[in-house]
Amino acid sequence: MSEQEIPEVRGMNPELAGKCAECDGGGHFPGTRYAGRQEFTGTLTGEFVELGDPVWRWYLMNDLTVKPEQFEGDAVWCLGGNVFLVEDDSVVL
After folding, report:
1. Structural domain boundaries of the chain?
2. 42, 50, 65, 71: most buried, per Cβ within 10 A?
3. Which of 74, 73, 91 is nearest to 82 (CA)?
4. What is the mean pLDDT of the chain?
5. Contact between 32 and 17 (Cβ < 8 Å)
6. Rounded to the nearest 5 degrees, what angle is found at the Cα of 38, between the Cα atoms of 37 and 44?
């Protein structure tokens, strides 16, 4: 692996699959030099990817019921630490 490649590990957590969750995070506003908070609500697939050193874990959420107006995707990757289970918001992934 070259110095510019980022280590990546993909996995599946079946205990999270199908759970309703919320996540928020920063995002760039297309066509501007600005960013802001964006909120999403949807269903966790159970899939995750770990990137970098130190490792950052991202969870895949689809079937979005809440998303920013300009967000065109059907799914979003959410950074661990910013994901909350709807059934128990004390659980942070």
Report:
1. 8-85
2. 42
3. 91
4. 88
5. no
6. 135
For residue range 35-68, list pLDDT tens digits in order.
778 899 999 999 999 998 888 999 999 999 999 8
The full length of the chain comes to: 93
CA end-to-end distance (rounded Å), the chain: 29
16-42 pLDDT per residue, tens: 999 999 998 767 777 888 877 889 999
Q: Which residue has the tokens 């991202």?
A: 58
> Token digits for 25?
């995070």
DSSP the chain: --TTPPPEEEEE-TTTTT-EEEEEEEEE-TTSS-EEEEEEEEEEEEEEEEETTTTEEEEEEEEEEE--TT---SEEEEETTSEEETTEEEEE-
